[in-house]
Predict the 3D structure of the following.
Amino acid sequence: MAELAYWEAIRRAHDEEMARDKMVIAMGEDIGVAGGTYKATSGLYEKYGEERVIDTPISENSYTGIGIGAAMIGMRPVIEIMSINFALLALDTIVNAAAKIRYMSGGQLEVPIVVRTPGGTAHQLAAQHSARLARMFMSTSGLRVVTPRGPLDAYGMLKSAIRSNDPVIIIEHEQMYNMKEEIPDEEYFRPLEGAEIVREGSDITLIGYNYSVHLCLEAAKKLEADGISAEVIDLRSLKPIDRETIRKSVEKTHNVVIAEEDEAPVGVGSEIITGINEDCFFALDSQPVRVHAADVPVPYNATLEKAAIPNADDVYQGALKALGKI
Amino acid sequence: MDNADKKRLLREMIFYRRFEERTFEAYMERKIGGFLHLYSGQEAVATGVLEMAVTGQGKDNDYVITGYRDHIHAIKTGASPSEVMAELYGKENGCCKGRGGSMHIFDASQNFMGGYALVGQPFPLAAGLAMGCKHKGTDQIAICFLGDGANNQGTFHETMNMAKIWNLPVLFVCENNGYAIGTHINRSTAQPDQYKRVDTAYCMESSQHDGMDIDNVMAAAKEAIDYVRSGKGPYFLELMTYRFRGHSMSDSKGYRTREEEKEWEKRDPIKLYSDKLLKAKVLTEADIKAMEKEIDDEIENVIIKFAEEGPEPKVEDLNKYVLDDNPDPRWIGPLQNN
């Protein structure tokens, strides 16, 4: 076991997969000579050369499209989009091409691309660098969307995403790149599907994904001090969603909070609660609670930004509200 | 090119015209749904360019990709006309099992990598195919056919730039038919000569030629394809042409004059080529008549029959082909440790 930062885990996954398979290439802005904005591809250019670690111009839609074209004939491109806000520029090639080519061709072709992109707020990056947008990708048929919460999954899920034959969107988070975790020295894979119970509990289920899992874990600790036992689920995959794990947990705890960093309308929480209504409505003892961002473009001002984005205390308060304690 | 090849080329173009006009009838009979974009008038472009490429050889073919006016490009690359027609009919025996339709013809077995309905989207996909060819070290190239209207998309500029800086083996064929749907090129495009838009801006080799005379097209295509295949990088080939039908079936062509249409009809690629072959005594009027009869019989008795008799896709297969239907649980899961 060795402690690796999130960015180091991503780099290790790239390195191993590129060493194994010549068809694996990396593409993106500043990922090569500059080593990547978050260092996640550092050293790879020197090791694999400019043909396989490709510094692209600032042309998100078309370099993603080039990755898709290459993937259609057997390449395995790992595409970094520097911020999920910029991924909006690539929505045409991701949503209209990558997600639909297998279907439109009647299963003749597949598009095994991986798009890695950080989605989340950091510190005063303002409205155009703070989008989360997970809900936009999870609403698209033909994509897989995963949200590694730490280095263990960042490494293991990227390895799986590269091997998978589907287009996979990996949503990372600006505030997680330096997060550290012990991960095995030997090669391992973490599956792209399946939620994970990261803390067992019996009184309430707190559901998070990506960075919000950590808010849930922090809230669970506070609840424990109040004598409330909270179970925490990391969704891990937003498309598809593992409804079975959620159902089992809600049938055990009978109360639920969903923590999302995104705005609420048509969001992750809406989808999870709909699933709960359909799967285990009568197991609920209380109304499900959504903890989410304010429905505003993210403000620059630090005080306003803090007010717009949910934190661990908001999740804690949400749990108390669900349990009728406030 | 010997006389047999010349006859074959003429036959192919007549076949493509008759095929498209027959889809028009089937559309009017509501056998074909959705949007239908016909290639009539532009036959010399796809026929001439692809005659110079590697086609009909299965996975050894060059990679071909285009927009939504795609039936003929698919067939000339090697797709079965019966399977293309069945696809237009939405049948399970269509080349895409009825999932794609007219605008999304694919035949991966012949490296025909699809028709796409987002104008300009195939530019980067083509460059990606070329990147794959280069990476694998094959002799194959990617050929992207798109209309002049596509050149006002961002993907055009982004892709021309990247194709050049990465020296990708891709041939961009601009089928300049003068209209972006219903807007004339002089009203939509600051530089109407499309080949000029890439030469200084992206330092790309480019040229403009008549696209109605198939001999011209083949000569220009040969030079362009040789250039790309030799490893010199991308090439942009602009071919001047005209579509005789509207943009799609719902187009009344109110944006252009009958006089203009008549001028172009004088240069109908099939007429130009048949006149040339008649003059050179490669064949006779009677040969052409016999050819047409044979083609109509084939379309009716083989191709339409195949489409008409094809089975409907099964509703229980609705959710197939969305994601990998047989994923490896090691990568996909689900997670077992809960």
In short: Chain B has a mean pLDDT of 97. The first strand of chain B starts at residue 63 and ends at 66. Chain B touches chain A through 59 residues (CB under 8 Å). Chain B is about 45% helix and 10% strand.
